[in-house]
Write a structure and sequence with these properties.
globular, six-stranded mixed β-sheet, alpha/beta, homodimer, 38% helix, five-stranded mixed β-sheet
């Protein structure tokens, strides 16, 4: 049976596709490591076909994509939609003429904000997915990740947003800096995490010296790698919460992320008295692509 | 002519030696890339001999070393001297029995602080060099670098110190993060640097989002790589100054560093109304090793 349409989440490191044969739930879920970051301009169509061609019929099949595939270095550039504004749907998508006539590719744009300058690609589709199920939401969405996003949502629009390099800094510091010597394994220490979040909320300027203290505590006092890793995470997430305070203070907050990381943000927010709703990032991406598919049919 | 004694600065990435044939100034200055980080335990003596053996006579020659060579993963561990206390001299050095009888090796220890936990190896010798020329100094020494140090000095002792990962974070973010895309070349922008320092002094918690703004400003507004690099440096040095304020506020400050980096710290401090004395880091290292040599003769 061939696909009615195909939803695609195409990020820097991964390509994922969901094959829809009927209306509501995907019949197949596929993925590869052909991320945008590893592809030349001519590599996108073959990478996509490698994954989905068994599911293509003779007629053109709508393929709705989100993520870095629409960046300047992607397949084709899908210019940013503006903030404040609604997350983009199929009307704002870039349409692509593929070599293979069985493909009818639409690439959803990201969103940009003029001041402070900021951009997102992929998260806007998760936001659209959340809004499809919560059209009257007025509050704040937090999307933890390599580049965490905080977005203020009102009346179906993204009113403002900010990006934080928290996840990328954690990866660099834990794997590539002098701190890597004290971070073996993958254990955790809840108390060390919470204390570090509190430290940053009250003294954010201490980040630079608090980071090196992880090394010194390891050398002088045998700080465990579990505690060091949890404390590093707490320092960086705490710094993010300190800066994002205008977003979460007194607001309804929903967290869209993967289980482990989102639960750490939830714990950090709980320490500040904020109880956040938690939602799965993949489910929101898929819901956002489905929402775009609905608007495609209305064009 | 053979050496009377040899001064050695042995860090993670470099080995440097100064050959003294008389008393006061070195007759030769030598260096190699046989840093401590690239050597096994058995590699230290051959690396040293490769550099200095032409200068050794038949009698044992004192070789006074400072830096990471005395760390746990170094040649032999020279246990930390305690803060508060004087920077270590030859009396506190670890003595090493080398295979080659022409070597009489002494390794100066670093210093450690119990609370907040902190360590230095190498900078204590620069501090000793500064104190040799300024024995009555009461104030603050700032030693910019991969791991910048701020030390409060009084009555010939290091009263307290803190380490900041500023230089290492700059290297990671400018070379290994998403920000590398906007940092080509090696130009500079004074105004962008100063504005970033001011931003961090007034709002240190914004670091995470201010970092990603460099990327967004590049994508949306064509921020130049010169401005982006200077702004990144200003954000990180500004965060350090915000945390080190108790060190520099109302104090006599001397900067010990290399020309370019130290001049950036001087500019940042000048923006806060602090005029810092500037001293060359290599000259201070050599002065510290000479000071240790004097105490060796008194043992």
């Amino acid at each position: 049976m061939s696909a009615e349409w195909i939803a695609v989440d195409w990020g820097t490191t991964h390509l994922r596709a969901w094959i829809f044969e009927g209306e509501n739930t995907p019949a197949h879920s596929l993925s590869s490591t052909d991320g945008m970051g590893s592809l030349d301009h001519d590599g996108f169509e073959p990478a996509l076909l490698k994954l989905i061609s068994p599911h293509l019929g003779d007629a053109p099949t709508p393929v709705i994509c989100c993520g870095m595939v629409g960046a300047r270095q992607g397949w084709i550039e899908a210019p940013y939609a503006k903030v404040p504004g609604s997350p983009p749907n199929a009307r704002g998508a870039a349409r692509l003429v593929a070599q293979d006539p069985r493909l009818d590719v639409r690439i959803l744009p990201g969103m940009s904000q003029a001041k402070p300058a900021d951009v997102m690609r992929g998260e806007e589709t998760q936001i659209a997915g959340y809004l499809a199920a919560h059209p009257n939401f007025d509050g704040v969405l937090c999307l933890p990740g390599t580049h965490s996003k905080w977005a203020h949502i009102s009346a179906g629009e993204v009113v403002s947003f900010r990006t934080f390099m928290t996840g990328e800094m954690f990866a660099l510091l834990s794997k590539n800096s002098v701190l890597r010597h004290g971070m073996a394994g993958d254990g955790w220490d809840d108390a060390a995490f919470s204390a570090a979040v509190d430290d940053m909320i009250s003294r954010p300027q201490s980040l630079g010296s608090d980071l090196f203290s992880l090394r010194a505590e390891g050398l002088l006092n045998g700080l465990s790698s579990d505690s060091a890793r949890a404390r590093l995470s707490g320092l960086l997430i705490g710094l993010e919460l300190a800066a994002a305070r205008p977003y979460w203070l007194g607001q309804a907050v929903a967290l869209i992320g993967n289980d482990t990381l989102a639960s750490r943000y939830a714990a950090a927010l709980a320490g500040q008295g904020v109880v956040a709703q938690m939602l799965d990032a993949d489910a929101m991406t898929l819901a956002g692509l489905c929402s775009a598919h609905k608007t495609l049919k209305e064009i």
